[in-house]
C-alpha cells in the first residue's frame, strides 16, 4: 500500500508548536510525560481513522457531513459559526507561527542571508503549491518534508543517546508537580481538530463508489496508524533529546527558536544545522496544511465545493496563508486572534468529536461501515479526556 493521506496529518500536527511543547516537556520533566504522548497518539489514531472512514465511505468531508446531517437550523448555524471561527480563523492565526518557525529554521541554516526574505519566500512557495490545486503535487511535497523531518529528529535522538531504561520509565503514568499544563499542551498539540477536517477532506476528494470500499478503508487504517505513530516517534525524539540536554540543568527558556543553539554543547556544531533543518521542515509542512484544513472546513460548512482546484477553495486557502504571512512579516501581534481561536477550539473540539462519533454510528450515513461496539467503548475515555481538556482550556482563557 502507499502511504499518503495519513502523512498529511503528521505534517500538520508536527509544527513549531509541537517542537516547543515537546522540548519544554523534556527540559522541565525529563522522560516522565512520555505516557501522555502515547495516550495522545492512540486517541489521535482512533479519531483520525473515523474521520478518514467517513470520507472514504460517503465521499463527504467532515464539514459537508455535518452540514448535511444537522437538521435543526439553530444547531446548524451554531456549527457553521464554530467551525469557521475555530478552524478558518484559527488556521489563519496559527499560520503566522508556522511561517515564523520555518523562517527561523532557514535563518539558522543561512545566518548570513537577510532574514527578512524568508517569510515572504516560504509564503510564496506554500501559495504556489496550494494554488496548483493538485492533490498529488501537495501530497508528494509534504511526504518528502515529513521524511526529512523524521530523519533529522530521529538522528538527533540517536546522537543524544538517551538510556532505553529512562525512556521506558516514561511510559508509567505520573504527574510531576507543576506538569498538568504541559500534559494538556502535549495532548492538545497532538489531537488537533482541524486535522479531522483535513483527513476526511483529502479522502473524500478521492472517493470512488466503484472501488472496493472495505479494502480502501483497511488500507486507510494502516496508513493512519503508521503515519500518526511516526508523528509520535518524532515528538518522542524531540522530548527525549531535550530531556538528555536540559533536564536538571536550569537551561532557562526553551523554545523552537533557541533549541538548536542550546543543543550544541551536547551534540556539537552539527546539531545547530540539524535542528534548524527540522524546524524548517516542521514549519513548512504546517504552513501548507493549515490553509488546506481551513479551506476544507470553511468550504464544507458553507456548502461550497471541496475540490482543491475550485476557485473558492483556493481563495479561502490563500486568504488564510496571506493573513499568516502578514502577521509574521510585519511583526503584528496575533494574540487577540489566537485567544479567540483557542476559545472557539475549546468549544468546538468536544462538539466536533461527539458529532464525528455520532456520524460514524449512523447506518443512514455510513451504511455497513459504522463503528463497532468495541471501538465505541475504547473511544469513550478519549471523549472524556477531550471534554476535560476543553474545559481546562476555556477556564484558563477566561478566569
From TrEMBL:
It is a multi-pass membrane protein. The chain crosses the membrane at residues 32-56, 77-97, 117-133, 140-160, 180-205, 226-247, 273-304, 316-332, 338-361, 373-395. The keyword Transport applies. InterPro entries: NRAMP_fam (IPR001046). Keywords: Membrane, Symport, Transmembrane, Transmembrane helix, Transport. It is found in: Membrane. It comes from the Bacteria. NCBIfam families: Nramp_1 (NF037982). PANTHER family: NATURAL RESISTANCE-ASSOCIATED MACROPHAGE PROTEIN 2 (PTHR11706:SF33), SOLUTE CARRIER PROTEIN FAMILY 11 MEMBER (PTHR11706). This is Nramp family divalent metal transporter. It comes from Pseudoalteromonas marina.
Amino acid at each position: 500500500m502507499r502511504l499518503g493521506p495519513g502523512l498529511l496529518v503528521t505534517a500538520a500536527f508536527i509544527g513549531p508548536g509541537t517542537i516547543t511543547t515537546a522540548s519544554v516537556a523534556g527540559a522541565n520533566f525529563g522522560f516522565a510525560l512520555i505516557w501522555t504522548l502515547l495516550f495522545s497518539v492512540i486517541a489521535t489514531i482512533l479519531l483520525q481513522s473515523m474521520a478518514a472512514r467517513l470520507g472514504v465511505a460517503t465521499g463527504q468531508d467532515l464539514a459537508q457531513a455535518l452540514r448535511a446531517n444537522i437538521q435543526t437550523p439553530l444547531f446548524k448555524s451554531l456549527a457553521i459559526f464554530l467551525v469557521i471561527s475555530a478552524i478558518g480563523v484559527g488556521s489563519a492565526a496559527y499560520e503566522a507561527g508556522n511561517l515564523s518557525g520555518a523562517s527561523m529554521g532557514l535563518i539558522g541554516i543561512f545566518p548570513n542571508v537577510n532574514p527578512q526574505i524568508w517569510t515572504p519566500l516560504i509564503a510564496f512557495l506554500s501559495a504556489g503549491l496550494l494554488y496548483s490545486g493538485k492533490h498529488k503535487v501537495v501530497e508528494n511535497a509534504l511526504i518528502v518534508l515529513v521524511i526529512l523531518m523524521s530523519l533529522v529528529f530521529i538522528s538527533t535522538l540517536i546522537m543524544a543517546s538517551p538510556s532505553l531504561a529512562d525512556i521506558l520509565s516514561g511510559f508509567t503514568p505520573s504527574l510531576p508537580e507543576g506538569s498538568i499544563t504541559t500534559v494538556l499542551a502535549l495532548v492538545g498539540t497532538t489531537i488537533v481538530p482541524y486535522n479531522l477536517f483535513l483527513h476526511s477532506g483529502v479522502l473524500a476528494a478521492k472517493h470512488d463508489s466503484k472501488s472496493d470500499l472495505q479494502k480502501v478503508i483497511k488500507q486507510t487504517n494502516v496508513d493512519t496508524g503508521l503515519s500518526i505513530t511516526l508523528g509520535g516517534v518524532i515528538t518522542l525524539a524531540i522530548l527525549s533529546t531535550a530531556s538528555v540536554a536540559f533536564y536538571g540543568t536550569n537551561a532557562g527558556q526553551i523554545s523552537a527558536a533557541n533549541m538548536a543553539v542550546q543543543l550544541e554543547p551536547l551534540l556539537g556544531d552539527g546539531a545547530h544545522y540539524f535542528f534548524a533543518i527540522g524546524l524548517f521542515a516542521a514549519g513548512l509542512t504546517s504552513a501548507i496544511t493549515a490553509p488546506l484544513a481551513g479551506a476544507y472546513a470553511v468550504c464544507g460548512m458553507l456548502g461550497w465545493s471541496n475540490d482543491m482546484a475550485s476557485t473558492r477553495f483556493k481563495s479561502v486557502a490563500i486568504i488564510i496563508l496571506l493573513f499568516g504571512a502578514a502577521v509574521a512579516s510585519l511583526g503584528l501581534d496575533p494574540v487577540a486572534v489566537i485567544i479567540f481561536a483557542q476559545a472557539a477550539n475549546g468549544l468546538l473540539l468536544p462538539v466536533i468529536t461527539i458529532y464525528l462519533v455520532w456520524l460514524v454510528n449512523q447506518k443512514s450515513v455510513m451504511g455497513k461501515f459504522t463503528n463497532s461496539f468495541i471501538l465505541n467503548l475504547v473511544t469513550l475515555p478519549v471523549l472524556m479526556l477531550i471534554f476535560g481538556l476543553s474545559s481546562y482550556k476555556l477556564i484558563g482563557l477566561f478566569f
